[in-house]
Design brief:
The structure is a single chain. By secondary structure, the protein is of the alpha/beta class. It is built from 11 helices and 13 strands. Helix 6 links the parallel strand 9 and strand 10. Helix 7 runs parallel beside helix 8. The radius of gyration is 18 Å and the shape is globular. It starts with a helix and ends with a helix. The mean pLDDT is 96.
Length: 274
């Protein structure tokens, strides 16, 4: 199999389940994107991590352009080497001036993948031009059966580029589609017909989301996020803590098949009770 076929099969085999995506691992008090946070996420379906290219063309797991928030170091990541970065000590949780230093370092991609070898990885290349490098590295590290990258798809040309990247690297590539108009629903059709197995969506209207999930059918799982900083239609983790049915239940009823959250344990408890 090639082009991530093994992972596609794995995702489709769980078609009746709503998959839980742990955003940057399971953090607080653990540092986000750290080895222990990633390992703690291995009890969930998917762990999302942020990946960036260093000055010496290595790949490390870190969200920001600098290390100010998580380390207290203002250097630019793209101007810093892997050795320098992986020696940095992380602040706890999501960092900031008040967060204490921990015993954990920024990991490189290989260490992150080893931390949860049976878990599916959502590899978020923070810079679009680095997506190919991330996909090639993950494939070279033997992660084709449990890792994917994602790319923005706003046209049929973008979809063709997704398929080419998938074919070239052997790693599954997920789509990211903004559900803004009828043309975006046509892109859902095109992605489904092109054998895309996972598509992350942004939406401003729940009815449009329902149409998209219907058109995606059983072969293409749609995912979205309920993160407090980034979410759709006011459906965020803060509200879900008080009333999970009003957030996660609404998304599931609309047909969403995977939810990225900073509250993965609470989402799992809701799914078990639902």
């Amino acid at each position: 199999m090639s082009g991530g076929d093994g992972l596609k099969t794995r995702l489709r085999a769980a078609s009746d389940d709503v998959l839980i995506i742990a955003h940057r691992g399971v953090w607080e008090p653990l540092p986000e994107n750290s080895i222990p946070a990633i390992a703690a996420a291995s009890i969930f379906d998917i762990v999302e991590i942020d990946v960036q290219l260093t000055a010496d063309k290595g790949l490390v797991v870190h969200h920001d352009e600098t290390f100010t928030r998580m380390v207290g170091d203002g250097r630019a990541l793209c101007e810093t080497t892997v050795a320098e970065i992986t020696a940095m000590i992380l602040r706890g949780a999501d960092g900031g001036d008040q967060a204490p230093l921990t015993d954990h370092n920024i990991p490189d991609l290989a260490a992150a993948l080893r931390a949860a070898p049976d878990t599916i990885f959502d590899l978020d290349a923070k810079n679009a031009e680095e997506t190919r490098a991330v996909a090639e590295a993950a494939a070279a590290l033997g992660a084709a059966d449990h890792a994917a990258v994602k790319v923005d798809v706003a046209s049929l040309d973008d979809l063709a580029a997704l398929l080419a990247l998938q074919q070239d690297t052997g790693l599954m590539v997920a789509a990211k589609i903004d559900l803004v108009d009828e043309a975006s629903l046509d892109l859902i059709d095109a992605a489904r017909d092109a054998d895309v197995a996972l598509t992350e969506v942004w939406f401003d209207d729940l009815e449009v989301l329902s149409q998209a999930t219907h058109r995606a059918g059983p072969g293409m799982r749609l995912s979205t996020y309920t993160l407090d900083p980034v979410h759709c239609c006011g459906l965020n983790d803060e509200t879900a803590r008080r009333d999970p049915a009003a957030v996660w239940g609404v998304l599931i009823d609309a047909g969403i098949g995977a939810i990225m959250t900073d509250e993965p344990a609470a989402l799992r408890a809701y799914l078990a009770a639902r």
